[in-house]
Design a protein that fits this description.
Length: 201
């Protein structure tokens, strides 16, 4: 099953798979909720899942599918290569993580390997995943502070938006600087965007 909210890419990925004699696309979906519904009906061997989907996102869809069907095999196919995207996808139960600019041979090879029960990650992605696993997760409140920081908000504005004291905001900033291994708010914002922790809508 191919899950992507862009019809042209979905059609391209479907055509790529269908060109192989041993692969058949049994279903397509444009969002996470639809993917879960169709999975229940069709139970495909492999799901090719985009991360950025309207409504229920890719990570949430993977978790929902695998909570009902623990043996489900999911390959993420995305344009996003941030460390946080990779980490969340693998944590949610995806067995492979492919970027949309990968070759046909790489995509097809991954599909066959995951179908055979393997977990497939390119060496550079495996290395980045290992590095990300060493970093402590940010708390929900630290994430709130970081999102506002990346939008250029001052400590006073962050405190007002989150109904906190400025002193509490400073404490949260100090903790997230340590977790992100950065020195100041500019570095924190750059790191958060580069790693895919925060995205601009």
């Amino acid at each position: 099953m191919v899950v992507d909210d862009h019809p042209a890419f979905r059609a391209g990925l479907t055509a790529l798979c269908e060109s192989e004699p041993d692969l058949e696309v049994v279903a397509e979906a444009g969002d996470g909720s639809e993917a879960l519904k169709i999975f229940r009906e069709v139970k495909p061997d492999i799901v090719l899942m985009d991360l950025r989907l309207p409504g229920m996102g890719g990570v949430e869809a993977i978790m929902a599918i695998r909570s009902e069907f623990p043996a489900a095999r999911v390959i993420v196919v995305t344009t996003y290569d941030g460390d946080e995207d990779l980490y969340r996808a693998i944590q949610s139960g995806a067995q492979s993580y492919l970027l949309k600019d990968m070759s046909k041979a790489e995509i097809v090879g991954n599909i066959r390997a995951v179908h055979a029960g393997q977990i497939c990650l390119a060496p550079r992605l495996a290395e980045r995943l290992a590095d990300r696993k060493k970093r402590r997760d940010l708390s929900p409140r630290e994430m709130d502070v970081l999102r506002l920081l990346t939008k250029g908000r001052s400590n006073k504005e962050i405190a007002s938006a989150l109904n906190l004291s400025e002193e509490t905001v400073k404490i949260h900033l100090k903790t997230l600087y340590a977790k992100l291994n950065v020195q100041d708010r500019t570095d924190a914002a750059i790191s958060a965007i580069r790693q895919g922790i925060v995205y601009f809508d």
